[in-house]
Design goal:
CATH class of the largest domain: Alpha Beta
Pfam families: FemAB
Low-confidence stretches: 159-163
Largest sheet: 9 strands, mixed
CATH topology of the largest domain: Aminopeptidase
Mean pLDDT: 94
Structural class: alpha+beta
GO biological process, one term: peptidoglycan biosynthetic process
GO molecular function: aminoacyltransferase activity
Strand content: 25-35%
Number of helices: 12
CATH superfamily of the largest domain: Gcn5-related N-acetyltransferase (GNAT)
Protein name: Aminoacyltransferase
Distance between the termini: 37 Å
Helix content: 25-40%
Keywords: Acyltransferase, Cell shape, Cell wall biogenesis/degradation, Peptidoglycan synthesis, Transferase
Order of helices and strands: EHHEEEHEEHEHEEHHEHHEEEHEHEEH
Number of strands: 16
């Protein structure tokens, strides 16, 4: 059965797992305060065997909701019996007024190594990552997609690799069983050179406090203007800091890279168990040649290794390999770390009330 669980119950379950997405922690419900949040649990013979964070978005003027579980829920996705997990969840959420459910199965289907991606970028005949033969694929994970479709779930479109919610393609630097020297050796020459250059130039990377968020945000806003994206307000990062650090003191870390007293780069890292995520990053246009961005990334990797993380997750990339696409630079930056591109199943929807589901999705499209 599925029923609500308390925050302490949810956190205790997470503590017993190797990792779950930080988007599935109770604290994330406080960060996304424009949604109503609830922790739910799957119980079998009185034991909590699965958990998820549900975010409810209300339809304007109606007490009906889209129920969203970003990068979740944390259930037995590969145990071959998805119906026994998803059917009781759908029944419970329908009782709560949900007209539709959106999930993000945390299931990796394919992987491409850095060398494979580099070769594909150089091949003019290849335009997207999906066209490139994967170095590894998981047939059991791919079967999950077929099962979801058979159960009435619909895969969201993900133009260029980004859906309306979370990215389908991410970039991971594997850390399990590797030393710092191993990780450095796996990077390309440019990355290693830039890390050495930052050290030679005297770039210092330190951990920040809540009081440093304003300085981080100034650099972040400059980055947003330079790279043409809409920045989040400072209040969002303050809320993120308060919620995540209250849940666990080491859940969120702020990194600041200074050169001769000037802040040149700043980032945030989130960690849950054995998985660490690079979540936000920023750099100044001035002093880019001192390589503060490389220095801060390397420090995050080192800290993730020291904390026992097996994966350093650089988050989303698009699928493009087109040299004319401005997103290609992001892939090339991440590929330089020597990690892997990984493909998730993407996000899936289950309409419970088709008319409301269609109307709401059209409303979201109009809002952009």
């Amino acid at each position: 059965m599925v029923r609500p669980i308390s925050t302490p119950e949810h956190l205790a379950f997470i503590e017993g797992r190797r990792s779950v997405s930080f988007l599935q922690t109770p604290a994330w419900g406080q960060v996304k305060n424009e949604w109503r949040a609830e922790s739910i649990g799957w119980h079998r013979e009185g034991t909590l065997v699965g958990a998820g964070l549900v975010l409810y978005r209300q339809v304007p003027r109606l007490k009906r909701y889209l129920a969203y579980l970003p990068e979740g829920p944390d259930i037995g996705w590969l145990d071959g019996d998805l119906q026994s997990w998803l059917a009781p969840m759908a029944a419970y959420l329908k009782q709560q007024g949900a007209f539709g459910i959106r999930i993000g199965p945390p299931v990796v289907t394919r992987r491409w190594h850095a060398a494979t991606i580099k070769a594909a970028i150089a091949d003019d005949a290849l335009r997207t990552l999906g066209e490139v033969p994967a170095d590894a694929s998981d047939d059991t994970a791919l079967d999950v997609a077929a099962t979801l479709a058979d159960l009435g779930w619909r895969q969201d479109s993900a133009e260029g690799g980004f859906s309306a919610g979370q990215p389908r393609y991410n970039f991971w630097v594997p850390l399990d069983g590797r030393s710092e020297d191993d990780v450095l050796a796996g990077m390309n020459q440019q990355w290693r050179r830039n890390i050495k250059k930052a050290t030679k130039n005297g770039v210092e990377v330190t951990h920040g406090t809540r009081d440093d968020l304003a300085a981080f945000h100034r650099v972040y806003a400059e980055t947003a203007e330079r790279d043409h994206f809409t920045p989040r307000p400072l209040s969002y990062f303050e809320r993120m800091w308060d919620a995540l650090t209250a849940e666990a003191s080491d859940r969120l870390t702020l990194y600041l890279a200074h050169h001769e007293g000037d802040l040149v780069a700043a980032t945030t890292m989130v960690r849950v168990g054995e998985h660490a995520w690079y979540s936000y990053g920023a750099s100044t246009s001035a002093k880019r040649d001192v390589r503060g961005s490389n220095a801060v990334q390397w420090q995050m990797m080192r800290d993730a290794m020291a904390a026992g993380a097996t994966v350093y997750d650089m988050r989303g990339i698009t699928e493009t390999l087109d040299s004319d696409d401005p997103h290609l630079g992001l892939i090339q930056f991440k590929v330089g770390t020597g990690g892997d591109a990984v493909e998730y199943l993407g996000e899936w929807d289950l309409p419970l009330n088709r008319a409301l589901y269609f109307a709401f999705t059209q409303y979201l499209k109009r809002r952009g």
